[in-house]
Design goal:
This protein is of the alpha+beta class. Among the domains are: 113 residues, no CATH class; 178 residues, no CATH class. The protein is 48% helix and 13% strand. It has 15 helices and 13 strands. The strands form 3 sheets. Strands 1, 2, 3, 4, 5 and 6 form a 6-stranded antiparallel β-sheet that branches. α5 packs across α6 and α9 runs antiparallel to α10. The radius of gyration is 30 Å and the shape is globular. About 8% of the residues have low confidence.
């Protein structure tokens, strides 16, 4: 699997050559002296590790009434993948620390929806919605027979036959328009009901959680067409640690866009915001038409861009995100990296501009120092980390070596990784966006 971190940090690997000894030596080689014992060698890279959820997550997040996070955590190219088991809903995978919070919060939403969908009032609303849709569709179906057509006619009979066809055609055309109006109105009503429902539940209406999407669609149809009035209480009634952490990530600005605007209006708002942040219309449109980025991720990304609007060169970062994102993990990486950059700027990191080196973006501070912000769940000393270090050491700002280079990551770095970076004159700061980490 192609890693977004690997893509950003991609640089050349120099191959080492090896020459075999001659097979035709004329005399045996002299005996070599015994080696002098030295300090034990240090392994070049850290071996692959099996992370333990109990060691990296806040204890309150490990288990809950509806779930248990499996102890073994897979880290692939620096992104943690968690398995969350639920006795009611099966197993869910969460790609990264941020999505883990979403998946746990979604389990509570599933339970609350199921409780309502088992009521008689909900079943009545589903039947009412089906009747409404059936009645609207039946009005458009033409009669099976036509009395004029049944009579063979000539002359004035044909005249009246054509007249009858026109009358019937006009009638059906108007009813077709009535059906289209009903479908537009009901579709808008269902979409609005879904957004309000997700606002109450504190979840993402564009989630890739198939089980939750199915229930959201069913409940929204009952609310928007069937006249169902019972809705889950506000998410504030759920005080679980995961729900609280997840809800804290939904800022008032994000909530107003995601829950108040339909998909078309949301895209128009995001397009305008990106252009006001300095992007060309074509670049903004290309980003918003990348199907891998959900509207939820796009809106978070756009809000981060607005926070970084005074930073020069953000268009390069957006284009890199657009062209490099080909799977869900890429979208998570770029969205969370944009959020991290915005958080660091708000924390008084004086980011001046974004530059590219070997097609990878990095931040330049006002004093010429370099800041590399990455959504990186777990950084250990590996070939990827060494490539990152070599790439950073090759950077120049205005033709000069930068006075300082800092790597700021969202997750955790091992002590060995930190030490190797420091040996190379690089400062590594981890836990810049702790999320569920302890």
């Amino acid at each position: 699997m192609r890693s977004p971190i690997t893509a950003v940090l991609s640089c050349c690997i120099v191959a080492c050559s090896w020459t075999a000894p001659s097979l035709f030596a004329q005399q045996p080689a002299p005996a070599l002296p015994a080696p002098i014992p030295g300090p034990p060698s240090v392994q070049q890279y850290e071996s692959a590790v099996s992370l333990k959820a109990s060691q990296i997550l806040q204890p309150a997040l490990l288990t809950g009434p509806l779930y248990r996070v499996r102890e073994d955590v897979v880290t692939d190219w620096g992104m943690n993948t968690y398995a969350v088991d639920s006795y009611l809903y099966g197993t869910f995978l969460a790609h990264g620390n941020s999505q883990l919070l979403e998946r746990i919060a979604e389990l509570n939403a599933l339970k609350r929806l199921d409780e309502l969908m088992q009521t008689e009032k909900f079943r009545d609303a589903v039947e009412e919605a089906a009747d409404e849709e059936e009645d609207a569709a039946e009005d458009v179906v033409p009669p099976s027979t036509d009395s004029i057509r049944e009579v063979h006619s000539t002359g004035i009979g044909k005249f009246f036959q054509r007249l009858g066809d026109n009358i019937r055609s006009d009638r059906n055309e108007e009813k077709q328009k009535d059906l289209q109006r009903f479908q537009r109105k009901s579709s808008a009503g269902v979409a609005e009901a879904k957004r309000n429902l997700c606002r109450n539940l504190g979840v993402n209406p564009y989630t890739t959680n198939i089980a939750l999407q199915g229930r959201l669609d069913g409940m929204s149809r009952a609310l928007g067409i069937g006249g169902f009035t019972m809705v889950p209480g506000a998410a504030s009634s759920d005080l679980s640690p995961a729900a609280l952490l997840n809800r804290a990530r939904i800022t008032p600005q994000l909530s107003a866009l995601i829950y108040d605007k339909d998909a078309n209006a949301l895209r128009e708002a995001n397009q305008l915001a990106l252009q006001q942040s300095g992007l060309k219309p074509a670049d903004a449109s290309a980003f918003l038409t990348n199907p891998i980025f959900s509207p939820w991720q796009q809106t978070q990304f756009v809000l981060a861009m607005q926070s970084l609007s005074t930073v020069l060169g953000m268009d390069a970062f957006v284009r890199d995100a657009t062209t490099s994102t080909t799977e869900e993990q890429d979208g998570i990486f770029y969205t969370e990296t944009a959020n991290l950059m915005a958080q660091l700027k708000a924390a008084q990191w004086p980011i001046s501009r974004i530059e590219l080196h070997n097609n990878a973006p990095y931040c330049v501070l006002k004093d010429g120092s370099v800041l590399l912000a990455l959504h990186w769940d777990y950084a250990q000393w590996s070939t990827t980390a060494e490539k990152c270090a070599n790439w950073l050491q090759s950077l120049k700002v205005n033709g000069n070596k930068p006075p300082a280079i800092t790597i700021a990551i969202s997750g955790v770095a091992t002590q060995r990784c930190r030490q190797e970076m420091e040996k190379r004159g690089l400062r590594l700061q981890d836990r810049q966006d702790r999320g569920p980490l302890n």
